[in-house]
């Protein structure tokens, strides 16, 4: 990605201090999504390394991963698979529990959303501690997906999420990083 593309993304992300709790710098991408040029830059940056590589599916994590993942799926001529919070999908599902700062949660996807061996890219807006993304990787692994990469617009590298995914053997691609978070 060029410096101007990175600058476009950085300038389009709103930072909200002390949300959802004191000391947290919340990185709000709704401003990026509302800026046609920044949104296109993000989608192209996420998709570009995988053009022509035969990606079968994009798996997007609820909710911002749906927006970005759907656009990347379109760009790569791939299918899209939603990874949702528990209880939102109507068909035969696979589920995984994962730890949150304040307890446990579960995410799920349709069992037939990805066929064993299909090449899948996981997409979300941000990687921080990596708990949600790690759970999504494990969920995709349960059904035999070939996870090519996990891609995010924003990386908060000091929180260690990238390292968790890489320890699982999943390459991580991010477009911008906010150090010192």
Automatic annotation (TrEMBL):
Pathway annotation from the record: Purine metabolism; AMP biosynthesis via salvage pathway; AMP from adenine: step 1/1
A GO molecular-function descriptor: adenine phosphoribosyltransferase activity
Main subcellular location: cytoplasm
Localization of this protein: Cytoplasm
Matches recorded under SUPFAM superfamilies: PRTase-like (SSF53271)
Enzyme Commission number: 2.4.2.7
Enzyme class of the recorded protein, top EC level: transferase
A Pfam family hit: Pribosyltran
Keyword Coiled coil: no
Subunit structure comment from the entry: Homodimer.
Family designation: Belongs to the purine/pyrimidine phosphoribosyltransferase family.
Name of the molecule in the record: Adenine phosphoribosyltransferase
Gene name for this UniProt entry: apt
């Amino acid at each position: 990605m060029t410096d101007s593309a990175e600058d476009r993304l950085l300038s389009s992300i709103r930072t909200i201090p002390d949300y959802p709790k004191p000391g947290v710098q919340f990185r709000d991408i709704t401003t990026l999504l509302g800026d046609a040029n920044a949104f296109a830059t993000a989608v192209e940056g996420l998709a570009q390394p995988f053009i022509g590589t035969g990606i079968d599916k994009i798996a997007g994590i609820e909710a911002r991963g749906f927006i970005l993942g759907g656009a990347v799926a379109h760009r790569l001529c791939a299918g899209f698979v939603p990874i949702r919070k528990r209880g939102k999908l109507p068909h035969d599902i696979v589920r995984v529990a994962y730890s949150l700062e304040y307890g446990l949660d579960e995410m799920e996807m349709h069992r037939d959303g990805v066929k064993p061996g299909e090449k899948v890219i996981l997409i979300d807006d941000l990687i921080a501690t990596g708990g949600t993304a790690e759970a999504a990787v494990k969920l995709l692994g349960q059904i035999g997906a070939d996870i090519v990469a996990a891609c995010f617009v924003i990386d908060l590298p000091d929180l260690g999420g990238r390292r968790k995914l890489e320890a699982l053997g999943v390459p991580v691609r991010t477009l911008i990083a906010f150090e010192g978070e």
